[in-house]
Amino acid sequence: MSELPNTAELDDNHLDKLRQHFAQRVSHQAQMLLEAWIRLNRSEWNSEALAELEQGCERLAKSAQRFEQGEHAELAEQLHNLFAQVRDNRNRPNSGQIQQLHSLMQQLSKIGMRLLDDQGPVLRPGARKPVYVCLQDQERAERIVQQLKFFGMRAQALDKPSSFQQAITDRHPSLLMMDVDFGGPSLGLSLAQHIQDSRPDRLPIVFYSPEAPDTRTQLAAVRAGGQALLSGNIDPARLLEKLDALTCQTLEEPYRVLIVDDSRAQAMFTEQALNGAGILTYALTEPLKVMDALRNFSPDLIILDMYMPECMGPELARMIRQHERYVSTPIIFLSAEDDLDKQLVAMGEGGDDFLTKPIRPRHLVTTVRHRADRARTLKQRMVCDSLTGLYNHTHTLQLLEDALHRAQQNGEPVSFAMLDIDFFKKINDSHGHPAGDRVIKSLALFLKQRLRRTDSIGRYGGEEFAVIMPDTDSTAALHVLDEIRRRFSDIHHPVPSGEIISTFSAGVATSYDGNDLSAQQLCSFADEALYQAKHGGRNQVCCHSGNKTE
Predict the structure, then answer these.
(1) Exposure letters 500-517 (e unless 16+ CB within 10 A, then b)
(2) Where are the beta strands (DSSP E) in 285-357?
(3) How many CB atoms are located within 10 Å of the residue 395 CB?
(4) pTM higher than 0.70, yes or no?
(5) pLDDT tens per residue across span 90-136
(6) Measured in Å, how far apart are the chain's first and last C-alpha atoms?
């Protein structure tokens, strides 16, 4: 006869479930606040949007206090105070307030993105609602659902049209994956169209066809609101990339603009116009200090005055362009000069645009946003690996140097890890290079899902990856990477002959305040730790400490 469970244990279990329930309710309020913040930064700042954010902070604070969620309550109070300051200043934030707001929103996001705690994956922003997977092949559907859960995505497989209709009635999903023949020939397309017709907005849908679809099927999928049409053997990593693109709202860094103008009054006018649109600025009235400002502020765009006492704007532009790091940074001349020939000469010296004073704030803001957005997109393509979307080798080392510089200034540790997929050559030899590419992409996506937004991830070369973890000591880095290693080994990767699992080994090295390690030294130490992990049996993480590996 089995023993009855202890009453105290039952009470503890009940309390744990209650705490989790309350935490989810508070997280829901936090998510709504984050989504409002993202919407604000994708459009023009206005009093109505700021009022919505203030109200969201109040609701979050009340909910967090009621359910004893201290971190949420503290952040909500700080955010509310900042929004009140902005309101009192006629809804005109300054760069310091924009930076503080973004920092607090990032902290709020991190609380809900702790993917490696005892409760398992926590949903990412944008993925609070479930993904419904409706496929004729139920075994395939369940396999996809399980794979998506490994990546922190909430997914539910539905086995027949009636189950789908009931699920839609109970709760609309963030995204629908629908077999074109779910429940019968072309019935999935009809079901999807019916759902779209009953909604005020379009539901993102990814259609699936076991065989390569013909043109009529593709056209019907588009008419039913399909954002993609997949066929054949579905790669979970590829599917998740689609889902992320369609559902995940991200907290993007505010645009950063360096203003170089010897007139403090003009610089302040430009600052206020851009700050009012949520753009971070740094005004420099001493043009000869521009290189230090570029290094410390890392702007997305530079605004230069044409005529300054110490140097001319075009001269400054030429000097900036001589530094490889700033070759693609947009430069806009903002000047009272209205002579077209002189404007064109200035543009030929490295400028991307010329705006004439006086200028309307809206014109200035729109020009800056468009130029900065295109520059970020271009830079992303220049510094990222084409297969994985991670930073390339050169840019990863540059980011490591920047992280070490900041860490030494702030007295914080920074950890650097090198990861290597185990027996990768065997995967290529046994299953072909496309299978190897799928494993590489899967690990890249998994790292992006599981690490913090403040961490930088690079493809170091081939099957090697690098991770930069600011403000992280070796113990924390080891714990996080080992948990990622363990969870990644559960993922099944599709290959022509079926499925395989893959593992990786990792080496971690940490720079602490005062040891003054260079990027090259830290890389060397991490490589030594990786060597130790691989020769110690693989599928493990080792830390380098001083001159020995643990």
Answers:
(1) bebebbbbbbbbbeeeeb
(2) 301-304, 331-335, 353-356
(3) 17
(4) no
(5) 888 899 999 899 888 888 876 754 433 333 333 343 445 788 999 99
(6) 48
